[in-house]
Amino acid sequence: MLLSQYAADEQPGSEWIVLCDFDGTISKQDVTDTLLEHFGRPGWQELETAWEQGEIGSRECMAKQIALLDASKEELDALVAGIEIDPAFPEFVAQARRLGTPVHIVSDGLAGVITAIMDRHGLADLPVVANRFEQAGPRSWRLTFPYADAACRKASGTCKCSYGSGVRGLHEKILYVGDGASDFCVSGTVDFVLAKHRLIDYCREHGLVHIPIAGFDEARNALDFILKGQLHAIAQPPRGFTIAPAAASTA
Questions:
Q1: How far apart are CA 81 and CA 119, in angstroms?
Q2: Where residue 24 sits, what CATH number does that domain have?
Q3: Residue 211 near residue 225 (C-beta atoms within 8 A)
Q4: Mean pLDDT of 37-53
Q5: CB of 38 within 8 A of CB of 71?
Q6: Residue 24: inside a domain, yes or no?
Q7: CA distances from 172 to 54, 101, 137, 246 (A)
Q8: Using one digit for the tens of pLDDT, what is the confidence trace for 15-36?
Q9: CB under 8 Å to 125, separation ≥6 — which residues?
Q10: What are the helix (H) ranges across the chain?
């Protein structure tokens, strides 16, 4: 899963690693949807519906949608420049690093766009695990999938479960931060979840110990407790479950 390129980011001996979704978690809007709404030719909405209904996987959906973009690099860059992130995210990363814990962005979105947005906020060195977004012509674009996995149950462009499995060789525990459907599978494979939006109900309904958050201000406040093993003090019990304090250290 191409882990070697991020070896320089790893903190020797760090017990935890933070894996964080981008669209709707770090960013205030979904990047791909924003590009399609502005520059997508007809047909991208039908592909979205087919994905939502489970007829195609996200990898096929996104590859075909990106092929429908009609935009120059200048037009695309101008739109991306207006995409905002949670203002507390840079400090969340800084706090994790002060505690000796690396942070990786793991997204089923567009790597080049994510990197450009992170660069604006002084986080150009933050590892980004996502689909490769490339210009194919003056006004055409394509995706390739360096983090795909043929065994992925959701046929995702970036298999977050597979990437998480890979980092287990470097770190004992994984903290995951996410918000939606692309985060459901991986949330059942990690040690703790900070959940936004739809992911909150998913964690409750599937018995995953988590903390519901509105944003990275709350995530930052929880970080010390999580990384120091005091999860029972702050964890949100899943709906319909009773969890003893000792059990709140695992998910």
A1: 11
A2: 3.40.50.1000
A3: no
A4: 96
A5: yes
A6: yes
A7: 34, 12, 44, 18
A8: 999 999 999 999 999 999 999 9
A9: 9
A10: 31-39, 44-52, 58-66, 73-80, 89-98, 111-120, 160-167, 184-187, 198-205, 216-227
Q: 17: closest CA among 188, 159, 146, 190?
A: 190
User: What is the C-alpha separation between 158 and 128, in angstroms, rounded?
Assistant: 11
Phi and psi at residue 205, to the nearest 5°:
-75, -20
- Whether 114 maps to a domain, the answer reads yes
Rg from Cα positions in the chain: 18
- Tens of pLDDT, residues 227-249: 887 765 556 554 443 333 333 33
Q: To which residue do tokens 């981008």 refer?
A: 22
- 18 has which bridge partners? 103, 175
User: Helix, strand or coil for residue 206?
Assistant: coil
Angle (CA) 133-52-134 rounded to 5° is 5
Look up the pTM and report it.
0.89
Q: Is residue 219 part of a domain?
A: yes
- Boundaries of domain holding 164: 11-28+85-131+149-249
Q: How many domains does the chain have?
A: 1
DSSP assignments along 90-108, one per residue: HHHHHHHHHTT--EEEEEE
Task: At 91, list the tokens.
Answer: 């400090």
Q: What is the mean pLDDT of the chain?
A: 89
Does 203 reside within a domain?
yes
Q: How much is the average pLDDT of 126-150? A: 98
- The Cα 228–Cα 14 span in angstroms is 12
Angstrom distances, CA of residue 67 to CA of 60, 72, 143, 159? 11, 13, 8, 21
